[in-house]
Design brief:
heterodimer; A: alpha+beta; six-stranded mixed sheet; B: alpha/beta; seven-stranded mixed sheet; 8 helices; 19 strands
Chain lengths: 532, 341
């Protein structure tokens, strides 16, 4: 673990990408294979599950430190991270226990099978035996929230440096349904045969946001456009008589969308489709709202009523594999023609629909179509260069998302709470209200959109203008107005205001506007009527 | 506690009715007893000042032509019906705790203090008292400092690694105290040491009173980093990440503060390194200092006051919070009441 802790420290101590990649590449060459594999797994989102409740960890840590539990509880929100609070509060450790990373993870994975006495003894022994950084890393692994400030993309780059294998090739190898328990470094990375795994998806190609208009992209005829649907981006993998559905976050979702099973009967094996999963009632001309789909996301098995109320289809964007052949390198136009041909004769009971391409000859014409996005339940339009291959990851140049402008409302900040992790000790989580006569009605929370400098400024203000404390939440003077940007609005009986916003964030601090001039509940209801 | 307390708190500061004086007041008063030269304790505008001989030069430098009387550590003065003496607080050079005795009742005001000897400031001395007025900037059990020698070794190693990589090392530290503590302890033979103007001004004052510091070079608009390869630059915390730093190119930046104990803060400062070093007492230091005073009453002035008060109460002290305007080692901005330089 000391080697891994050194890697963690090296990554934590620099903000420079090249230094991070170099440190990780060196580790991936030197560490034992089992540790390397676990590191790759951790950095591609394959974290061990939380195996001990946080309540027990707090109690045991306070006990080990000889401190009352309340003092631990007071310290925790100030640090903002449970694993770190424990590591900081424990007495100086010995640091003599240097089992490798993979062995510690095995210890963590064995915890659920132990009874509480044994579990406690195991964890206390682990704390006592490790130095401060190893303890922190161990706690992070145990509490299931491990992040190292290295994206999967950077990890893949470091892995490419360490192994000499191409980055896109590695990205593909790392996709799919593996864990360090089901494979080895040799099988996954070195002697890899992608076709061995029938379920394996391709790395998703992700678009950048187009901030200015499309005029700078060149001639409109070089570009294909379609609506950007507001659902779950997914890949439907049909191979060897099986089907698998993957989310963009590489989560296997096959069982959540049982209506896609029939696609096996209509589409030949050796086909991989990139598309958007949407809740869509038969015969409707637009998908249902994201809310309807959201009910399906959290469920591993789907009750019949929900299958009927929110039936799911996949709107196909692209064809990545056809007749068992990886066709990602071919131009978009060719892939799209193959896709249209493959889907042309499907009967309505097969829930795959092509995402229609938009017809436009000028950028102005496309802008007009984009303006209709919201009423079609779309987030904007996607632009794809007709000659472009299907790349992996987020790459600039060939794919752009041109979203509609967000909806905006001016709201009054009424509650504030401190953030966690990097934002510990800063007030970053706010509740906003609209006016309703003399009253203020809370309607949304927002966490992002301000600069660090603005967060520091508002933090200082909150400290001096707290009216009341409710645990970690502070009620503040209703003085500051923020412009809240959001992507959609829905009716919600669970909220006092009667609405729920989609992706709210602070777009501007309206220092120019007094609270009396913030928007009203009626304004919010008008928006609901227009866009809900 | 006696029916007439030795010290009370008014809207101007901590006040002694028997001697008619204030200790570290935050509004102008006639007579101010000052614990040390940081701006949140030594403010402008008082008619008369009393401070240690070692604290006086910095105060004159910062506050200009003030009416300042000097006192030696341990020397007893009678002011009105109170007997007053100053005792080392170990915070910065010249810093003191102020002992006030009235009719046999002894109160001590700690100012800011740390219990570890730093090789620069007069080391902290516990003073027996009935009531102890203490800071608790780092009054949480998550704050524990490594021995200074270890932190200094880390700084030396970081500097050497940057030299090997051809990078300048820029270290943020408070202009009074922390910067000189680092200077007095690092291995100055490793390379040239450059200083921000605010740090160098304080260096000049301290050298003038006979405190030995290694040779330093003040950074001016004409300073060319190329002329000082492998340099360590001591900057004020507020200079980190500003245009002032650009002249050093792809430098490695670091910040020395007790707050660096927390990863979230370390990352937010977006310095490359955070060295955990404070001129305030850590959790164990606070508890040990309070224990050694033998006081039954403890008044906490600034820091995590409500949590620390509850802890002290559970330990059997009569503990209370007094609201003051001291800042301690601030997380945001400059701290210690220091102006951004």
């Amino acid at each position: 673990m000391k080697r891994f802790a050194r890697l963690f420290t090296a990554l934590d101590q620099t903000t420079k990408t090249n230094a991070k990649v170099a440190a990780l590449a060196a580790y991936l060459q030197e560490a034992p294979e089992a540790d390397r594999l676990w590191t790759v797994a951790l950095l591609s989102g394959r974290r061990p599950k939380r195996t001990v409740t946080s309540t027990l960890l707090r109690e045991w840590a306070a006990e080990r430190a000889g401190l009352p539990l309340w003092l631990f509880e007071e310290s925790y929100p100030i640090v903002g991270d449970l694993a770190e609070t424990i590591a900081l509060i424990l007495p100086e450790g010995g640091g003599s226990d240097d089992r490798p990373l993979a062995e510690w993870i095995a210890v963590i994975q064995a915890l659920p099978k132990m009874d509480e006495v044994e579990r406690k003894a195991t964890i206390l022994a682990a704390w006592d035996g490790q130095g401060p950084v190893e303890r922190f890393v161990f706690n992070k692994l145990m509490t299931g929230g491990f992040r190292m400030g290295v994206s999967q993309k950077l990890m893949t780059r470091a892995l490419a440096q360490a192994t000499g294998i191409d980055e896109p090739d590695l990205a593909h190898r790392l996709m799919g349904d593996w864990t360090p328990q089901t494979t080895t470094w040799e099988a996954l990375i070195v002697a890899h045969d992608p076709s061995a795994d029938l379920s394996r998806p391709y790395p998703f190609y992700l678009a950048y946001q187009l901030d200015a208009g499309p005029e700078e992209l060149g001639a409109p005829e070089d570009w294909a456009a379609e609506y950007k649907w507001d659902g779950i981006r997914g890949q439907l993998v049909l191979r060897g008589g099986e089907h698998h559905v993957w989310s963009r976050g590489e989560e296997l979702m096959t069982d959540r969308f049982p209506e896609l099973a029939v696609t096996r009967d209509f589409v030949p094996p050796g086909t991989v489709i990139d598309g958007e999963l949407l809740a869509w009632e038969e015969g409707a001309d637009a998908p249902m709202s994201f809310n309807a789909l959201q009910k399906r996301i959290g469920r591993k098995t789907v009750p019949k009523a929900l299958l009927r109320d929110a039936p799911v289809v996949i709107r196909a964007y692209d064809l990545l594999e056809w007749n068992g052949e990886d066709i990602r390198a071919r131009p978009f136009d060719d892939r799209r023609a193959l896709l249209d041909a493959a889907l042309a004769d499907l009967p309505p009971e097969c829930p795959i629909r092509p995402s229609p391409l938009l017809t436009f000859e000028t950028w102005d014409a496309l802008a007009a179509l984009r303006a209709e996005s919201r009423e079609r339940q779309a987030e904007g339009v996607m632009l794809k260069r007709r000659a472009s291959p299907y790349l992996s990851g987020r790459k600039k140049g060939d794919w752009w998302k041109w979203k509609v402008d967000p909806l905006m409302i001016d709201a009054v900040m009424i509650y504030a709470q401190q953030g966690h992790g990097r934002r510990a000790n800063l007030f970053t989580d706010f509740t906003f209200a609209v006016r309703d006569g003399e009253a203020l009605v809370p309607f949304t929370k927002a966490y992002s959109g301000l600069t660090d400098a603005e967060f520091r400024k508002i933090t200082a203000w909150v400290r001096k203008n707290t009216l009341e404390r409710y645990g970690p939440v502070r009620q503040v003077k209703p003085v500051h107005v923020f412009e809240i940007a959001f992507e959609g609005i829905q009716k919600s009986p669970r909220h006092k205001s009667g609405v729920a916003l989609r992706f709210p964030r602070m777009s501007r601090w309206r220092l120019d506007k007094p609270a009396e001039e913030a928007n009203t509940l009626d304004d919010l209801k008008d928006m609901l009527a227009a866009y809900g | 506690m006696a029916s007439n307390p030795v010290l009370t708190v008014t809207d101007k500061g901590i006040y002694c009715p028997a001697g008619d004086f204030f200790i570290d007041p935050w509004r102008p008063v006639d007579r101010a007893l000052i614990t040390h030269g940081h701006a949140d304790h030594a403010r402008a505008g008082h008619a008369r000042y009393l401070a240690t001989r070692a604290a006086a030069p910095v105060m004159r430098h910062r506050l200009g032509d003030i009416r300042l009387e000097e006192i030696e550590y341990g020397e007893v003065r009678t002011i009105g019906d109170a007997e007053v003496s100053y005792h080392p607080a170990g915070h910065v050079p010249g810093s003191a705790q102020v002992r006030v005795e009235v009719n046999g009742e002894v109160w001590v005001v700690s100012g800011d203090y740390k219990t570890e000897a730093d090789g620069l400031s007069e080391p902290f001395e516990p003073v027996r008292c009935h009531a102890f007025v203490t800071e608790c900037t780092f009054g949480l059990p998550i704050f524990k400092w490594d021995p200074q020698a270890e932190v200094i070794a880390d700084i030396n190693a970081w500097w050497a690694a940057n030299q090997a990589a051809g990078r300048v090392s820029v270290l943020g530290a408070y202009a009074l105290g922390k910067a000189q503590r680092i200077l007095a302890n690092i291995d100055a033979s490793q390379g040239p040491i450059l200083t921000h103007g605010a740090v160098e001004s304080t260096n000049d004052v301290l050298r003038g009173q006979g405190i030995a510091l290694p040779e330093t070079i003040r950074v001016t608009p004409e300073t060319k980093p190329k002329d000082h390869p492998g340099a360590l630059v001591l900057a004020t915390p507020s200079a980190l990440g500003t245009p002032w730093m650009r002249r050093f190119g792809a430098a490695s930046s670091a910040f020395a503060s007790g707050w660096m104990r927390m990863r979230g803060v370390r990352r937010r400062r977006s310095a490359d390194r955070g060295f955990v070093m404070s001129d305030h007492a850590d959790w164990d230091g606070l508890n040990a200092a309070i224990r050694e005073t033998g006081a039954e009453t403890v008044l906490v002035t600034h820091g995590y006051t409500s949590i620390f008060r509850r802890w002290l109460e559970e330990q059997g002290y009569d503990a209370r919070i007094v609201e003051t305007e001291y800042e301690g080692e601030s997380l945001e901005g400059q701290g210690e009441g220091e102006e951004a330089a």
